[in-house]
UniProtKB/TrEMBL annotation:
Belongs to the LysR transcriptional regulatory family. The keyword DNA-binding applies. SUPFAM superfamilies: Periplasmic binding protein-like II, Winged helix' DNA-binding domain. It comes from the Bacteria. Residues 4-61 form the HTH lysR-type domain. This is LysR family transcriptional regulator. It comes from Microvirga mediterraneensis.
Amino acid sequence: MRLPSLAALRAFEAVGRTGSIRAAGEELAISPTVVSRHIQNLQADLGVTLMEHKGRGVILTQAGAQYHGQVRQAFDLLRQATQGTKTTGRKSLTIWCIPGLATVKLLARLPELEAQLGGGDIPLQPPLSRPDFSRGDADAEIVYLDNPPRQGDLRAERLSHPRVFPVASPALLARFPDITSPLDLLRLPLIHEDSTDQWEFWLRHAGVTHIPILQGPRLWHAHLAIEAAKIGQGIAIANALLVEDDVRLGRLVEVLPSEVYLGSYYLVAPRNRWSSRPIQMLFDWLVQVLQPGRTMIAASGAAIMTKEADC
């Protein structure tokens, strides 16, 4: 029997695992259009409907779920065989990291980390989904979490707990000079990531008790929301790690002084790997790199001190 295209099977496995054509495209480094075409070709080849659209994602049909389980096992075996065959002469540490932090803080400093690890390769992947450590997707993950794993096979150690605050371009704030409280923000254009949750959390922590249905564009990634704020499209929620340089250089302004802390950045790795030298070195290095600056510039233009929450 002729087997389906390997590329189509990879796309099917990734979509079924992530529940998203877009996330699968990010992981495989191909466009969502190509992923969709692979799925369509696979379904046509098999003569079976494997997936159905639901909301913004996709779900497996009964036949699709059964087939996906077998395909995933096959790819797991291929990964294990490949991992066992790789030469051990050159060290490698595969890190998955959320896109904004990877772009702003880590990309330019990878040679520094590689040197600390003795010249090994550091593949840095900024996917939308979380890695499956049991399949060998990654050696470690850098992720922003509210509730890190406390038990099980994974161990999470906090790297940084940055302050979170609204930012906007100086030009946009010049159009709205009378912003004096968080309530004033509700009448301004707000920029969101994948949902309105982050704005709602910040407003609630800032003391707003009645939050209406929030409007505004959804840009999915923190760094895209920040870029939109820099060109004057609205006000974004950001943390100190991602915008400290932009604020220092005057490209962004903190709209209201606040002391709101939400999630934290964590290094996540299999519990049995934390005693290894590469993971320990990575953790120590990240703790030093991911520390917000000690000053930020408030809307008034005066420098205000920031501090890490002791929690």
